[in-house]
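Please complete every field before forwarding. Incomplete forms are returned to the sender.

SECTION A: IDENTIFIERS
Entry label: holo-248
Bound molecule: magnesium ion
Molecule representation: SMILES string

SECTION B: INPUTS
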Amino acid sequence: MPQQGICIGFVSGKGGTGKTSLVAGIGAALAETGKRTLCVDCDTEFRNLDLVMGLTEQSLMDFTDVAAGRCTLEEAVTEHPARRGLFLLNAPIRGGERVTKMEMNALAAHIRKHFDFCLMDAPPGMGDSFGLVSGAADRMLLVAEMNPLSVRDAQRVVTELDAFPPGDVRLIVNRVCLSPFRRPELTIDDIMDGAGLPLAGLVPEDDAVLKALCHGTLIKPDSAAGRACRNIAQRIGGEYVPLPRMYR
Ligand SMILES: Nc1ncnc2c1ncn2[C@@H]1O[C@H](COP(=O)(O)OP(=O)(O)O)[C@@H](O)[C@H]1O
Ligand SMILES: [Mg+2]
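SECTION C: PREDICTED COMPLEX
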């Protein structure tokens, strides 16, 4: 039997921690290593992964259409013109028809047969879409920032993920400040201890993320954030690579 792909949900307590940016960045890095990667926008209220990947107006169909059988997966996905092997499956423009957990799980099972990795971009919080993503994903990545509010949010989200075996829920700390003149109030260890999760990766604060968004391109692979996304992609892909050194 061919190897099944892996579905990974990206979640956070509050919005703005960088889930969508990292789904696009890590997805692009996985595709660069030769893994067929599908990024799914699971935010049915505020879809924006298409904008972040520079793929607006590309597809009329979305994941609710595929889940409900109104079109095929192949008809709904769009391959990125600049990154072979990187695909997007949109969310509906607004609302869309409700997808049940059973439909979502069936969609994930179908996706696993056609892709090496599926990155599911969840909306913030623990509403219906969070339930769909956490119910269908094999692993979860919780994206947090370096402040006490984000740590408290992470603690709260973790309590909803106790069905996952230890190690299948990991933490990405985003927007790590690299300036030698600004020592952060919290250390990475504080955040890991607070959230009670092992670390999947660190991503620095980097203008390249906003620049990519404004230009409708993927994050530059040779930027600090691009290298961090590659590091996480390699670790997700099972390679042993050390975490990037961000503090001296
Ligand atoms: N590492 C980073 N460095 C700089 N800006 C970032 C970084 N990660 C995210 N951002 C910016 O933060 C904002 C929110 O990011 P987004 O990915 O939309 O978060 P979420 O999906 O969690 O709501 C965007 O403007 C994005 O460009
Ligand atoms: Mg988002």
